[in-house]
Amino acid sequence: MILLNITYYGAMSWLPSYLTKTYLLSLGAAGGILAVNSVSQVIGSYFTGVILSKWFPGRQKAFILICSIISGSSILCLITIHNIVLALILVALIGMTTISAFTATFTWPQAILPQLIIGSSVGIINTGGTFGGFLAPMIIGALVQNAGGSFVVGFIFIAITIFVGGLSVFAVRVSKN
């Protein structure tokens, strides 16, 4: 969860600066793009439950990995293209797939852990996620500053973080009850 939230909060905290600098947008225009991102996250949150239940029952690991690959790849595409329409689509896709991976991870304990410890396990997972949200803006800020104001290194860090987060779910052992 910490790696997913580094990606989520890192992208959300630095996208406005990136968009305004790269595309010479006003803060209002960048805010409009981020509003589209928020709508895509609502859609992603809703459909994650539907998709997990219908096509991925008991296969959260695969779903989280797929979402992480799409999100990380979209982040890498975002920093290589210079087209505002494609950027808008990529920002929406990043938001949707990142929140889908987050939602699948956050709800996973209910499927794999005994009911007696679900509350404490969710608390631990949420603590890790919150810590990721705390670290992300500072790490990315330091990377951007050390790169002379270039956002490329910061967004590569975010992409690598979600790729590693997607792969890390395979370290979780699930007993076959």
Assembly type: single chain
The H-and-E topology, N to C, reads as: HHHHHHH
- What structural class is derived from the secondary structure elements? mainly alpha
- Number of helical segments with 4 or more residues: 7
Give the integer mean of the pLDDT values.
91
Uncertain spans? none
- CATH architecture call: Up-down Bundle
Concise account of the structure shown:
It comes from Lactobacillus crispatus. This protein is an all-alpha fold and 177 residues long. Helix content is 82%, strand content 0%.
Structure, explained:
The structure is a single chain. With 177 residues, the chain is mostly helical. It has one domain (2-171): Growth Hormone, Chain: A. The protein is 82% helix and 0% strand. It has seven helices and no strands. It has helices at residues 2-23, 27-54, 60-80, 84-107, 109-112, 118-146, 152-168. It is globular, with a radius of gyration of 17 Å. The chain crosses the membrane at residues 23-50, 62-81, 87-109, 116-144, 150-172. It holds the Pfam family MFS_1. One of its GO terms (molecular function) is transmembrane transporter activity.
Helices, strands, pairings?
Elements: H1 2-23, H2 27-54, H3 60-80, H4 84-107, H5 109-112, H6 118-146, H7 152-168
Helix pairs in contact: 1-2, 1-4, 1-6, 1-7, 2-4, 3-4, 3-7, 6-7
Q: Top keywords for this entry?
A:
transmembrane transporter activity, transport, Growth Hormone, Chain: A, MFS_Transporter, transmembrane helix, 177 residues, mainly alpha
